[in-house]
Amino acid sequence: MAEEYITIQGEARDEFIEKKSRFIGFIRHVETEGDALAFIQEIRQKHWDATHNVYAYLLRNQSLQRYSDDGEPQGTAGIPVLSVLQKEGLVDVCIVVTRYFGGILLGGGGLVRAYSHSASLAVEAAQKLYMAPCLEFSLDFEYSFYGKITYLFPKYGIETLSSDFGERVRLRLLIKKSRYPSFSLELTDLTGAAVSPVVEKEKYADLK
Question: Taking the model in full, what pTM does it have?
Fold first, then answer.
């Protein structure tokens, strides 16, 4: 798997007024270009009467980035929105900035500042996710090991996904991939090799 990356959860929005023009920033987590285009179309349909629906999106897997000024002067809208995503280090994210013209021209510099600000407000309104390669694994052990084993969890930032306290303790856990080798070694030493983790799958997760 690749390195850690930052995205957002779900979607968010925020807005402001600049010289009577209303700017509404919409942001959503997307994973494919189809997701991004569907989101853009959704906003366009909802705000069909807007003067402009400017957008930008960045996709991690395809290393793809796209933007549109949607009728604003070239370079004053789409690129500033894309630049906000780049500066924030965000991927798998699409932003649409809807503008209702208020009758007062903002000029090139004013447009750049307004679209950048709107995109930044949308990012601030969203919940960021710091995604890292993680391993989902299970442990099966006698109750006598419970205290020793769970004592390790905070040290390695391990999250408990599920637990089953039957004849034996069965836990399904999540750990950052980079921490797994050290945890596995310490677990072996701590239990005298009586308990071995079984890796079930690898995935990205927002795990501190």
Answer: 0.85
